[in-house]
Design brief:
Chain lengths: 204, 300
């Protein structure tokens, strides 16, 4: 092996299979800011949908998705990878659902509830519901990855209802019934997440 | 407010008779309050909450309130909750039965899910669809596969195969090919599940021209560079007009206007050029004005 080739191989081995500290910091910031926003909302509930909230939902989702994606990339075609422990620092594979995921999910559920409640005649309902479905799918994948199959099932159960709601030819009273059902189920999940998080903080 | 006090208020709200509640209010207001109380039950311990939910389900309440109560049940990991859901799925009818089946999917209890098979067999179309949806929610592709394999009519088979496609259950769908033979329903499901390898194999198999053209078109649903390149190659190597048109339809579905443009520039037959130009117009290709300009000027 000549020197140039050896240098290339060394450079490749030392390279960026691990996420840069800067990138990791960005993910954590996204999650923290979403959590802070959630705390802020609890004090001052919004009256209208705000695109910014969707951005933060997307930021958390993107952080989780990138983490999952890098996890797959680093699996290195099934061969053991020396870099895997670095990924474990980003999203650890533990038997406990990470608190950051639960907080991100709460933001998603709260945003979905708010958006569904604030539909009016001028809303492009189909487009908005499809955006919610897209977010929902990402959180469903993240729930599976974060050892939360029950949450994944509930999120999957939302999708058929959302798809019905996205239909443009749905009767107004049927749309209202679906919105009421979704609002209830989203509220129940938020209450459950808050209750579980409260129990954990009391026991620790 | 302590938990016990909250629970007393929730119980009182939920167990008030539907007809005698708050005479001045609309019935909807009474239901709204009960639903809010049901929501609050999620913060109560299961041993306190479950008897209250059971009473709601046994009481004289609207279907809407009972449906919400079923959702609450699905959130408790207890055999009693699962047994109640199964009882409603078996013995009730209409919306409550369908909702109970959905909740069994959310609960994900293996035994309860296995019991849905009998309910599927004796149920009408609505119940059967609800069972398939419950398996989708529970991500139980094996049960949907078993329904597809044992289906004795086209509708049951096709609904189960569609569901496997939506679940992305490629292994089960491939297995069905050998068990049930190839069909258009299966090709659609391969497309929805993103099974490019199987569709490519079918697209290159000319033994059944009808299925071959269907598979070529369906590849467009999957899309992506690999599919786009394959479709262009199939078009170039086509030995029949049907295959060529199917490849064009596939390119139209995948939105690969660059590939169609490439084929347009390479075509020498005026009829073929005209057809490719029509596709470029339908696809609203960015290059369409240059192409039209060149065509009018007599260039290639």
């Amino acid at each position: 092996m000549n020197d140039e080739l050896r240098k290339l191989v060394e450079a490749h081995e030392a390279d960026a299979h691990r996420p840069s500290p800067h990138l990791v910091e960005q993910w954590h910031n996204a999650i923290d800011e979403a959590a802070a926003l959630e705390r802020g909302r609890q004090r001052e509930p919004r009256q209208h949908w705000h695109p910014g909230s969707f951005f933060w939902g997307a930021a958390v989702t993107a952080a989780l998705a990138i983490g999952i994606g890098i996890g797959f990339v680093l699996s290195n075609n099934g061969e053991p990878s020396v870099n895997t422990p670095i990924v474990a620092n980003v999203i650890p594979e533990t038997s406990v659902t990470p608190a950051a995921f639960t907080r991100g999910l709460a933001v998603h559920l709260r945003d979905s509830r708010q958006q569904i409640a604030s539909f009016d005649e001028d809303t492009d309902r189909t487009m908005l519901v499809l955006q919610i479905i897209e977010q929902n799918r990402m959180f469903e994948s993240a729930a599976e990855y974060n050892n939360a199959p029950k949450l994944a099932r509930v999120l999957r159960a939302f999708e058929p209802i959302l798809l019905q709601l996205a239909a443009s030819d749905i009767a107004p009273e049927d749309a209202e019934a679906l919105r009421a059902q979704l609002a209830f189920e989203l509220n129940v999940m938020l209450t459950k997440l808050a209750s579980e998080s409260s129990d954990e903080s009391h026991t620790t | 407010m302590n938990k016990l006090f909250k629970l007393v208020i929730i119980t009182a709200t939920l167990l008030l008779p539907a007809t005698g509640f708050a005479q001045d209010d609309e019935p909807g207001d009474s239901d709204s309050l009960k639903m809010a109380a049901l929501e609050a039950l999620m913060s109560a311990p299961p041993e306190k909450a479950l008897p209250i939910v059971d009473k709601v389900l046994a009481g004289n309440h609207s279907n809407e309130v009972k449906e919400r109560a079923l959702f609450i049940l699905s959130q408790f990991d207890s055999s009693e909750a699962q047994a109640t859901l199964l009882r409603f799925a078996r013995e009730d009818t209409g919306e409550l039965q369908v909702e109970a089946i959905r909740m069994i999917g959310i609960g994900g209890d293996k035994e309860a899910l296995a019991n849905l098979r009998d309910i599927y067999q004796t149920g009408n179309r609505e119940v059967r669809d609800a069972v398939l949806e419950a398996y989708l929610i529970a991500d139980d592709a094996t049960s949907v596969y078993e329904i597809a394999v044992s289906a004795d009519n086209e509708e049951d088979f096709s609904e189960a195969v569609d569901m496997l496609g939506a679940m992305g259950a490629r292994d089960e769908l491939r297995e069905l090919r050998s068990r049930a033979g190839m069909s258009e329903t299966l090709i659609d499901a391969y497309a929805i599940s993103g099974d490019y390898e199987t569709l490519r194999e079918l697209a290159l198999d000319s033994s059944d021209p009808e299925l071959q053209t269907k598979a070529i078109e369906a590849m467009g649903i999957i899309g992506g560079d690999e599919v786009d390149n394959t479709l262009v190659e199939i078009y170039r190597g086509a030995d029949s007009e049907d295959v060529r048109e199917a490849a064009l339809d596939g390119l139209l579905i995948s939105g690969h206007d660059e590939g169609v443009l490439e084929l347009y520039r390479a075509a020498t037959d005026p009829g073929e050029k005209r057809q490719l130009l029509e596709y470029l117009v339908i696809m609203d290709s960015d290059a369409i004005y240059d192409v039209i300009d060149q065509a009018l000027a007599g260039d290639r």
